[in-house]
């Protein structure tokens, strides 16, 4: 792409993503509210539609507090470092057959590689706050995100072996050609992906870095106002990105019956993933750190490896 | 092994079931007759016997009386104050009152204010506090019914 | 390059999201492992015992509401019962049944609330709201009979304040049915959950000897294998007329305390049902001496009376010197005693277990600080 | 049954500390009730109560202090799970410098009970590992549950 359309695409996408995050937060609060016999937000706008807008506005006009004892430069930089990669990885997502930014032949690698930079933001935020809860939270967060990065990558390897390409668009075309979404032949990989994605996102039941009953608010305890908003934004953009990736590689991307455009199917599948994550949050208690680590290293990684072995055998055997 | 999956069924069941929330300022909980809400005072009934002041465990009631204009042996109420900063709505004042001059309404939501000093309520406020619940007096019942019919 | 690690002092509270009120726990941690813990209390101290010395006997009843505000009926009861014992009052039959009904309903409400907040500590948010919904049904019933939702001030020396309103007993029966059904759902949601079991089984073990020596009472004691319930072993009021079990567990861990409380809800519902059947249709509800609120003067003497509250053994030690006011009231608050064991229990545990252990003891700070 | 226990405890104390050690021994609401002076309340006696075969008072239900103006009393309410029996033990101590031995080493639950009694009544429990204020703040003056404690609002500067 040329520079101008690229900038334009990024600008439009940013706006859409912001709207998407606002919708996702509302969606989350509504879903969880309904599951808890509440109605969720309902004061701002019909059906509480403007609730997130009001929240964001409130965050933006709040006083910008930087704790006296904080490491100022790192403290300021941390939310940005956490947010930027979560947005940058969206470049490779192909929303439909024709709507995409970069047709990258190492799309999967780019996606996974860049997203792990967020870890750095978490660590920086937790360390620079000079707060004990934040420090513990960020330590937990980093340990968890690094550990779960491995099963996450390994679970995708099975798909890559089957398809023979790292290009996200090729993966969808492959699914179109065999007429089957990959979560069926790659069911084991899919399960491992779903579980480690939750841990990657620090969402319930693996939300240990921000376990509010233990660590107040984890690594962003000291953040407020728009810096806090940045962390929140990063978290939700990341949730959107991960569900976009899941949609692409396991659920056939934009594929779907013809009477509706591909973007619609893509969004619908993403919504499904988001709903599952909210559902989990409403149902499960929080896991404990050591259990989480044990589970990641002793269960998920062997499972993912097993999946790779099986896939390779099938691939070789089938030709 | 996967008994945790059952939990998803439970939350999903609640997802579709009726919501329990009461949208507070629009709809309010109907308090039962006995509900111990904020007091109402009837100056005409009061015989200035000081029972409520003695019975109050938090000492928030203060009152003074003045001689009855017709019968100097009797007294009528002059000032009557409750300091709601300390009132714990325990109902002892109404329990000991021999003439039911101080009663508790079913109201619970008209004390909020921005200033603590506003919680000091005098005889005017207390006697004009709206009455509903257990302690309706005859005339007001008629008025209420008339109002509903309209 | 040399590295060294140091211990870190971490303040949990008094304004921490999971301290159940204003409770401060000063812990030192090495990494995430607790090396020492010191509970610091008193942030909610209101001097109840001193206040009692300046008030007439009846006037202290609303203050007992504010000790364990989740289970105020039993507090009401034990205070009134100790004065009654000093005075040697006979309580009318119907009043006794009303007392049992309200106390047991309140116990269910208290256990439900514990269940909700405990699960919130464990990171599950939905149970909290489900528990509050069912608790509300009970609070509505208690509101109908006593005129308040939490600080009931319902019992009087010699009886109870109000008789049951019309149709109340039937509504209680309906509520019991409703709650029994719902609890089953909640059980499915939580008890079988593997994450929850992994976090609670084997965590916070208290041995039988330790539990007795530390003076634990109530569900915490029974979860350690001591089959003791004051309602059964030393029946007060008319508890000997009802048929119910004392749930006990041998494990002594967080999960055992959880199971004991859930089982106790079922037992309490059983008692409520039986009381609804047995209650006489009408009758006096208060002894005639108790009717004159401000004129209660027990004879000289002292008495220690205890009862089974939802958190454990609540006791009142009352000294009377034949005046209008009590000479000395000592309140043995179960939470105050139960929370004490924390300093020993937490050592060597990771921070994530802290909230589970603390939550499993079911502590209400209004009661700890009196 | 309970009277038998009362005599038993009485004899035990008299054996350990002489005939006049027991100030008062009575039944109070069908429960044995014994008063002794603080110099006779010793660890060996407490240990006998906890471990002696007839007593086995393993549960210290409540510990409190009372200010009787001419003297102070610490009241122990013991319960025995194995024998299902009670004992009230009142330990008298002079008001000027009230001091009683700490039973914390025997019943761990006594730890906070004793701290509370120290905090509110100013009774000193010798041998307590951490005897400091528990409910009131550390710099509080006086002991509120003493009968001569000034509760006047004006004197406390609240009005």
Automatic annotation (TrEMBL), chain A:
GO terms for biological process: aerobic respiration. NDH-1 shuttles electrons from NADH, via FMN and iron-sulfur (Fe-S) centers, to quinones in the respiratory chain. The immediate electron acceptor for the enzyme in this species is believed to be ubiquinone. Couples the redox reaction to proton translocation (for every two electrons transferred, four hydrogen ions are translocated across the cytoplasmic membrane), and thus conserves the redox energy in a proton gradient. This subunit may bind ubiquinone. Its EC number is 7.1.1.-. NCBIfam families: PRK06076.1-2. NDH-1 is composed of 14 different subunits. Subunits NuoA, H, J, K, L, M, N constitute the membrane sector of the complex. Its main location: membrane. This is NADH-quinone oxidoreductase subunit H. It is found in: Cell membrane; Membrane. The keyword Transmembrane helix applies. It comes from the Bacteria. One of its GO terms (cellular component) is plasma membrane. Belongs to the complex I subunit 1 family. It is an enzyme of class 7 (translocase). Pfam families: NADHdh. Keywords: Cell membrane, Membrane, NAD, Quinone, Translocase, Transmembrane, Transmembrane helix, Ubiquinone. One of its GO terms (molecular function) is NADH dehydrogenase activity. It is a multi-pass membrane protein. HAMAP family: NDH1_NuoH (MF_01350). The chain crosses the membrane at residues 6-27, 74-95, 107-127, 148-166, 178-199, 236-256, 262-280, 300-318. InterPro entries: NADH_UbQ_OxRdtase_su1/FPO, NADH_UbQ_OxRdtase_su1_CS. The keyword Lipoprotein does not apply.
From TrEMBL, chain B:
Residues 37-66, 78-107 form the 4Fe-4S ferredoxin-type domain. Keywords: 4Fe-4S, Iron, Iron-sulfur, Metal-binding, Translocase. GO terms for biological process: aerobic respiration. It comes from Texcoconibacillus texcoconensis. One of its GO terms (molecular function) is NADH dehydrogenase activity. Pfam families: Fer4_7. Belongs to the complex I 23 kDa subunit family. The keyword Cytoplasm does not apply. InterPro entries: 4Fe4S_Fe-S-bd (IPR017896), 4Fe4S_Fe_S_CS (IPR017900), NADH_quinone_OxRdtase_chainI (IPR010226). This is NADH-quinone oxidoreductase subunit I. PANTHER family: NADH DEHYDROGENASE [UBIQUINONE] IRON-SULFUR PROTEIN 8, MITOCHONDRIAL, NADH DEHYDROGENASE UBIQUINONE IRON-SULFUR PROTEIN 8, MITOCHONDRIAL. Its cofactor is [4Fe-4S] cluster. The keyword Iron-sulfur applies. Gene3D superfamilies: 3.30.70.3270. One of its GO terms (cellular component) is membrane.
From TrEMBL, chain C:
Transmembrane segments: none annotated. It is found in: Cell membrane. The lineage of its organism: Bacteria, Bacillati, Bacillota, Bacilli, Bacillales. NDH-1 shuttles electrons from NADH, via FMN and iron-sulfur (Fe-S) centers, to quinones in the respiratory chain. The immediate electron acceptor for the enzyme in this species is believed to be a menaquinone. Couples the redox reaction to proton translocation (for every two electrons transferred, four hydrogen ions are translocated across the cytoplasmic membrane), and thus conserves the redox energy in a proton gradient. Keywords: Cell membrane, Membrane, NAD, Quinone, Translocase, Transport. It comes from Texcoconibacillus texcoconensis. Residues 121-292, 296-369 form the NADH-quinone oxidoreductase subunit D domain. It catalyses: a quinone + NADH + 5 H(+)(in) = a quinol + NAD(+) + 4 H(+)(out). Its main location: membrane. It is a peripheral membrane protein. GO terms for cellular component: plasma membrane. It is an enzyme of class 7 (translocase). This is NADH-quinone oxidoreductase subunit D. GO terms for molecular function: NAD binding; NADH dehydrogenase (quinone) (non-electrogenic) activity; quinone binding. Its EC number is 7.1.1.-. It holds the Pfam family Complex1_49kDa. InterPro entries: NADH_Q_OxRdtase_suD, NDH1_su_D/H, NiFe-Hase_large.
TrEMBL record, chain D:
Residues 43-153 form the NADH:ubiquinone oxidoreductase 30kDa subunit domain. Keywords: Cell membrane, Membrane, NAD, Quinone, Translocase, Transport. It is a peripheral membrane protein. PROSITE patterns: COMPLEX1_30K. It holds the Pfam family Complex1_30kDa. It catalyses: a quinone + NADH + 5 H(+)(in) = a quinol + NAD(+) + 4 H(+)(out). It is an enzyme of class 7 (translocase). GO terms for cellular component: plasma membrane. NDH-1 shuttles electrons from NADH, via FMN and iron-sulfur (Fe-S) centers, to quinones in the respiratory chain. The immediate electron acceptor for the enzyme in this species is believed to be a menaquinone. Couples the redox reaction to proton translocation (for every two electrons transferred, four hydrogen ions are translocated across the cytoplasmic membrane), and thus conserves the redox energy in a proton gradient. This is NADH-quinone oxidoreductase subunit C.
């Amino acid at each position: 792409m040329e520079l101008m359309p690229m900038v334009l695409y990024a600008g439009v996408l940013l706006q859409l993503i912001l709207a998407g995050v606002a919708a996702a937060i509302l969606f989350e609060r509504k879903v969880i509210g309904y599951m808890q016999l509440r109605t969720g937000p309902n004061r701002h706008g019909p059906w509480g539609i403007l609730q997130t807008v009001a929240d964001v506005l409130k965050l933006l006009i709040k006083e910008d507090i930087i704790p006296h004892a904080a490491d100022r430069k790192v403290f300021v930089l941390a939310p940005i470092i956490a947010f930027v990669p979560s947005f940058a990885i969206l470049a490779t997502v192909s929303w439909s057959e024709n709507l995409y930014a970069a047709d990258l032949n190492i799309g999967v690698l780019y996606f996974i590689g860049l997203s792990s930079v967020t870890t750095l933001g978490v660590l920086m935020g937790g360390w620079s706050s000079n707060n004990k809860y934040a420090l513990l939270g960020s330590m937990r967060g980093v340990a968890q995100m690094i550990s779960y990065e491995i099963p996450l990558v390994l679970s995708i390897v099975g798909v890559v072996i089957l398809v023979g390409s790292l290009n996200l668009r090729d993966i969808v075309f492959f699914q179109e050609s065999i007429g089957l979404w990959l979560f069926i032949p790659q069911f084991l990989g899919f399960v491992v992906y779903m579980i480690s994605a939750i841990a990657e996102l620090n969402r319930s039941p693996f939300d240990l870095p921000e376990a509010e009953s233990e660590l107040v608010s984890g690594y962003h305890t000291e953040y407020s106002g728009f810096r806090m908003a940045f962390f929140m934004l990063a978290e939700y953009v990341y949730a959107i990105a991960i569900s976009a990736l899941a949609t692409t590689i396991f659920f056939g991307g934009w594929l779907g019956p013809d009477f509706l455009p591909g973007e619609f199917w893509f969004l619908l599948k993403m919504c499904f993933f988001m709903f599952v994550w909210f559902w989990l949050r409403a149902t499960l208690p929080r896991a404990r750190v050591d259990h989480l680590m044990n589970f990641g290293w002793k269960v998920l990684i062997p499972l993912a490896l097993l999946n790779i072995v099986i896939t390779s055998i099938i691939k070789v055997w089938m030709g | 092994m996967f008994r945790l999956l059952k939990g998803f069924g439970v939350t999903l069941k609640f997802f579709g079931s009726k919501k329990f929330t009461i949208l507070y300022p629009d709809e309010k909980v109907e308090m039962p007759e006995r509900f111990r809400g904020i007091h109402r005072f009837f100056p005409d009934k009061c015989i200035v016997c000081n029972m409520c002041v003695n019975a109050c465990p938090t000492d928030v009631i203060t009152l003074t009386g003045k001689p009855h204009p017709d019968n100097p042996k009797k007294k009528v109420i002059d000032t009557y104050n409750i300091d709601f900063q300390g009132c714990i709505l325990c109902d002892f004042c109404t329990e000991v009152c021999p003439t039911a001059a101080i009663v508790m309404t079913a109201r619970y939501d008209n004390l909020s204010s921005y200033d603590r000093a506003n919680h000091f309520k005098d005889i005017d406020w207390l006697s004009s506090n709206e009455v509903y619940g257990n302690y309706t007096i005859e005339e007001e019942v008629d008025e209420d019914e008339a109002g509903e019919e309209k | 390059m040399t590295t060294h690690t140091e211990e870190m002092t971490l303040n949990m509270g008094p304004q921490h999201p999971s301290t159940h009120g204003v409770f401060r726990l000063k812990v030192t941690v090495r990494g995430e492992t607790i090396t020492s813990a010191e509970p610091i209390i008193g942030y909610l101290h209101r001097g109840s015992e001193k206040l009692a010395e300046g008030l007439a006997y009846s006037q202290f009843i609303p203050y007992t509401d504010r000790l364990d505000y989740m289970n105020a009926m039993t507090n009401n009861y034990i205070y009134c019962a100790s004065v009654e014992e000093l005075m040697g009052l006979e309580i009318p039959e119907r009043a006794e049944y009303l007392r049992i009904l309200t106390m047991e309903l309140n116990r269910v409400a208290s256990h439900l609330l514990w269940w909700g907040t405990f699960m919130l500590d464990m990171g599950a948010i939905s149970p909290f709201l489900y528990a509050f919904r069912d608790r509300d049904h009970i609070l509505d019933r208690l509101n109908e009979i006593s005129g308040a939702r939490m600080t009931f001030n319902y019992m009087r020396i010699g009886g109870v304040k109000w008789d049951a309103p019309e149709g109340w007993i039937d509504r209680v029966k309906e509520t019991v049915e409703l709650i029994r059904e719902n609890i089953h759902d909640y059980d499915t949601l939580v008890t079988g959950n593997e994450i929850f079991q992994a976090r609670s089984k084997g965590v916070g073990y208290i041995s039988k000897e330790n539990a007795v020596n530390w003076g634990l009472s109530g569900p915490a004691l029974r979860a350690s294998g001591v089959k003791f319930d004051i309602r059964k072993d030393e029946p007060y009021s008319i508890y000997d007329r009802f048929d119910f079990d004392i749930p006990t567990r041998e494990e002594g861990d967080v999960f055992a305390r959880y199971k004991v409380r859930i089982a106790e809800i079922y037992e309490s519902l059983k008692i409520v049902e039986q009381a609804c059947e047995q209650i006489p249709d009408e009758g006096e509800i208060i002894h005639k001496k108790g009717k004159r609120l401000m004129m209660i003067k027990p004879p000289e003497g002292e008495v220690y009376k205890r009862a089974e509250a939802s958190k454990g053994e609540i006791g009142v030690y009352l000294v009377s010197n034949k005046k209008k006011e009590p000479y000395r009231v000592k309140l043995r608050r179960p939470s105050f005693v139960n929370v004490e064991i924390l300093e020993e229990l937490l050592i060597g545990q990771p921070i994530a277990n802290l909230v589970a252990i603390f939550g499993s003891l079911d502590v209400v700070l209004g009661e700890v600080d009196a | 049954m309970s009277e038998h226990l009362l005599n038993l405890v009485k004899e035990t104390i008299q054996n350990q500390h002489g005939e006049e050690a027991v100030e008062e021994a009575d039944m109070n609401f069908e429960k044995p009730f014994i008063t002794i002076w603080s110099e006779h309340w010793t660890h060996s006696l407490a240990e006998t109560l906890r471990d002696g075969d007839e007593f086995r008072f393993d549960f210290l239900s409540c510990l409190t202090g009372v200010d009787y103006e001419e003297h102070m009393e610490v009241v122990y309410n013991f319960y025995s799970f194995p024998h299902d029996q009670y004992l009230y033990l009142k330990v008298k101590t002079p008001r000027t410098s009230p001091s009683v031995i700490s039973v914390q080493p025997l019943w761990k639950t006594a730890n906070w009970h004793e701290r509370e009694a120290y905090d509110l009544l100013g009774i000193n429990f010798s041998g307590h590992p951490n005897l400091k204020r528990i409910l009131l703040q550390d710099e509080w003056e006086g002991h509120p549950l003493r009968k001569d404690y000034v509760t006047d609002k004006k004197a406390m500067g609240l009005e």
